[in-house]
Amino acid sequence: MAREWAFVALGSNLGDRTAHLAAARAALRDLPDTELVAESAVEETASLGPVPQPPYLNQMVLLHTGLDARQLLEVCLAIERAAGRVRRQRWGPRTLDLDIVRFGDRRLDEPGLRIPHPELPHRDFWQRELAELLPHAV
């Protein structure tokens, strides 16, 4: 399979946020047929949604991967679980959140997988991080 550029957002607002992001980057770096090409700066942002919670550390990484979008999603979910992520509440706090923001120029609308991520237009920090990484996707 041809490789694709994948932009994956990392977020954490519980526990050692810096360590959670570092572990996620390491896990993504170790994926088969995948290269972690670039990382955006890490920034702290206020939480989104109706649930009161601590601020997030956010970052985006650029992968060049031979995995398809569904395979990448499954790996991201496994990385979240390894970091202690438990899905109890939509928009709730989390040790680690990994979102596929873009996967090449593809548009997908499947159960549990929408690309580009539907929240991209509403998250200024994702747009900043994406702009920082786009020059590396050549």
In a nutshell, what does this entry contain?
The chain is an alpha+beta fold. 27% of the residues lie in helices and 30% in strands. It has one domain: 7,8-Dihydro-6-hydroxymethylpterin-pyrophosphokinase HPPK (Alpha-Beta Plaits), CATH 3.30.70.
The CATH superfamily label reads: 7,8-Dihydro-6-hydroxymethylpterin-pyrophosphokinase HPPK
Low-pLDDT sequence parts: none
pLDDT average, as an integer?
Answer: 92
- Looking at the structure, the CATH topology is Alpha-Beta Plaits
> Which CATH architecture is right?
2-Layer Sandwich
| Cα separation of the termini | 18 Å
Number of helices: 3
Gyration radius over CA:
14 Å
Order of helices and strands: EHEEEHEEEH
Largest sheet: 5 strands, antiparallel
Shape: globular
Q: β content, as a range?
A: 25-35%
Describe this structure in words.
- The chain has one domain: 7,8-Dihydro-6-hydroxymethylpterin-pyrophosphokinase HPPK (Alpha-Beta Plaits), CATH 3.30.70.560.
- The model has no long low-confidence stretch (mean pLDDT 92).
- The two termini are 18 Å apart.
- The protein is globular, with a radius of gyration of 14 Å.
- It has three helices and seven strands; from the N terminus they run E-H-E-E-E-H-E-E-E-H.
- Helices cover 27% and strands 30% of the residues.
- By secondary structure, it is an alpha+beta fold.
- Strands 1, 2, 3, 4 and 5 form a five-stranded antiparallel beta sheet that branches.
- A hairpin with a 2-residue loop joins strand 6 (108-110) and strand 7 (113-115).
